[in-house]
Amino acid sequence: MPNSEVVVITGVSSGIGRVTAEKFVKRGCQVFGTVRSTTKAQAIPGVVLVEMDIRDEASVQYGIQAIIAQARRIDVLVNSAQRGFPGNSKKYPESTGARWRRQHDCRCRFGRVEDAPHA
Fold it and tell me: Which SUPFAM superfamilies has this protein been placed in (predicted)?
C-alpha cells in the first residue's frame, strides 16, 4: 500500500485502540499498532504490530524508527495507549501515588512536544 496513508495507533491490544486500528484498515490505510509485547498481543488482520512502551523514551525511539524504516513516513498518529486498573483511591488505596503517575504518563506522555523528533 505505498500510496495509502500510514497510520500509527498506540495501544492496540484492546479497546478503543484495537477498534480504531480495524477501522483504519477498512479504509485502506497502512496501519501500525503499538503493543507492549508482541508475543502476548493478539494479531489484528491488516495491522503490523510494533513493540513499544510509550513510557520508555528508548522504546518509543526504536519503535518509531522501525515504522519509518518500513513505511518511510507517518501520516496519522493516534495515541490510544493507557494502563487501566480497577476501582478508585478510596476502594483501592494502593491506586494512589506511583500508580496514578504511571497512568498519567501512559495517557499523556506520547503527545508531548519533546516526543515529536522521533516521528
Answer: NAD(P)-binding Rossmann-fold domains
